[in-house]
Write a structure and sequence with these properties.
alpha+beta; 2 domains; two-stranded antiparallel sheet; 10 helices; 8% strand
Length: 278
């Protein structure tokens, strides 16, 4: 039966908005685990993204409660800083407040030792998530998205300058340096796919075009070319041996690390569930 414009005016039924709501509503019940997408190519992930118009009204940052404090007393921001520092981060006594470390900002390649020069970036910005489907989520699910430590692609430490440049732009309007571009695109697509977020047509077109220069093989983190130096500044001792990052733990064949076992540190347990580097 053809769609009757007059009927729409009488009943208020809008098939496009109905489809948007249904897609977002179904997303409430499933967030894919990070490993679910590990063996897929970037092109195959892009092909699975739902394509829908954006919902650009109503966004407020306060709708996404973020930087929660975890059971170990560290905030999500502090946890990412601790996890991503390539040297042992220095913290204030008896707190998680990070005052020094070494971070390489992947967006622009700059290196920083002062955490105040860094932002923790939501790879898919909160407003972009809202426009792409999170407008229909519960506050609890938006909180989960904004504090997602289950996938290291969701939140990353970057220079404040590059984060301000990126703002809430999607890949049609902003991209990081070319050396990091494919990694960024893979992270962007994976986060959207995991959370059931949509792309609009210009975004889909840009992703297809930009991904053409990326490898067709499944994207997995490259092994470190060098092993970070052992710690020179003490933190509260949690266990030995010491693994500065999960990459180092995996390279040593020690991951996953369980609470109470050699090598486990709360700093590596980003979701606070007692299992690090899973």
């Amino acid at each position: 039966m053809p769609f009757d414009t007059a009927s729409k005016q009488r009943t208020g039924f809008d098939p496009v908005r109905c489809l948007l709501f249904l897609t977002a509503f179904l997303g409430l019940f499933q967030v894919l685990p990070p490993r679910a997408l590990a063996e897929e190519t970037l092109a195959s992930k892009i092909a699975k993204l739902p394509v829908l118009p954006e919902h650009p009204s109503g966004y407020k940052r306060s709708l996404f409660p973020h930087w929660d404090t975890l059971v170990n007393g560290c905030s999500v921001r502090e946890t990412v800083l601790i996890s991503e520092s390539t040297t042992t981060p220095v913290r204030l006594p008896r707190t998680c407040a990070v005052v020094k470390g070494t971070w390489s900002s992947p967006y622009d390649g700059t290196v920083h030792t002062d955490p105040t020069k860094l932002d923790i970036d939501h790879v898919v910005a909160l407003k972009e998530a809202w426009d792409s489907g999170a407008w229909s989520w519960s506050t609890a699910k938006r909180r989960q998205f904004a504090n997602d430590l289950t996938d290291p692609r969701s939140l990353i430490a970057v220079s404040a300058v590059s984060n301000r440049e990126k703002s809430d732009k999607d890949p049609t309007a902003w991209l990081p340096r070319s050396a990091y571009r494919c990694t960024y695109l893979e992270a962007w697509v994976s986060v959207k796919l995991r959370w059931g977020l949509a792309v609009d047509k210009p975004e889909l077109s840009a992703l297809r075009t930009l991904s053409g220069s990326c490898s067709a093989t499944p994207s997995t983190p490259a092994p470190p070319t060098t092993t970070p130096a052992p710690p020179t500044t003490s933190l509260p001792t949690e266990s030995t041996p010491y693994y500065p990052t999960c990459t180092a733990a995996r390279a040593a064949g020690a991951a996953p690390l369980y609470a109470g076992s050699p090598g486990y540190r709360a700093a590596l347990d980003r979701d606070g569930d007692g299992v690090a580097c899973e």
